[in-house]
Design brief:
Blueprint lengths: L51 H5 L4 H4 L3 H15 L3
Length: 85
């Protein structure tokens, strides 16, 4: 499966705790990554400075759903389920 054009759900919905160029403390859930461009594509894709967490997210039917809204919902639920108490 390939990433959906103009989605960016995996660059918005989850929190990222490792540093990202332009976001030295990572990013909170629900906030777009500064590396997300106007076409909702990662500027760091394929580059060594891309956080390991980002590279671990691979498009899958469960995660991506039928559309961007389902992807955002699924990732937001995963974020809630894995957040520290």
């Amino acid at each position: 499966m390939h990433c959906r054009d103009r989605c960016g759900a995996c660059c918005i919905a989850p929190s990222i705790t490792s540093p990202i160029p332009g976001m030295p403390h990572g990013k909170p859930a629900g906030i777009p990554c500064v590396q997300l461009d106007d076409e909702l594509r990662c500027r760091l894709f394929g580059k060594p400075e891309r956080p390991t967490f980002c590279g671990s997210l691979q498009p899958q039917r469960d995660m991506c759903g039928r559309d961007r809204d389902e992807a955002m919902d699924w990732l937001a639920e995963l974020e809630r389920a894995t957040a520290p108490n």
